[in-house]
């Protein structure tokens, strides 16, 4: 279940994908299969070859791409891998903002 996501963030992610960019979208997420994780970052691109090459730099296998018929195929980044990749990509701030928001509600 996804939550903590603003419509504008989702639309911006889709726009970047439509333009052929590697796009990042971080949001809260709960899934019984991954009880230790409460966020996910979706990294998508319209060009699946480009997306697979991007993922390869981080040890992600092309078989792990979530293929979507609507054109918004993506990798799901979770846990330590999510933090590591976001830090390498200069995108860690997105995750830290979510964590701050979560802490302020507690």
UniProtKB/TrEMBL annotation:
Protein name, per record: YneQ
Organism: Bacillus carboniphilus
């Amino acid at each position: 279940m996804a939550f903590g996501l603003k419509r504008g963030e989702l639309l911006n992610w889709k726009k970047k994908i439509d333009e052929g960019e590697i796009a990042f979208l971080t949001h809260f997420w709960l899934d019984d299969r991954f009880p230790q994780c409460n966020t996910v970052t979706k990294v998508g691109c319209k060009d699946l070859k480009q997306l697979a090459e991007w993922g390869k730099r981080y040890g992600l296998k092309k078989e792990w791409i979530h293929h979507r018929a609507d054109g918004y195929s993506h990798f799901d980044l979770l846990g330590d891998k999510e933090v590591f990749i976001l830090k390498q990509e200069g995108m860690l701030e997105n995750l830290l903002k979510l964590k701050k928001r979560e802490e302020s509600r507690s």
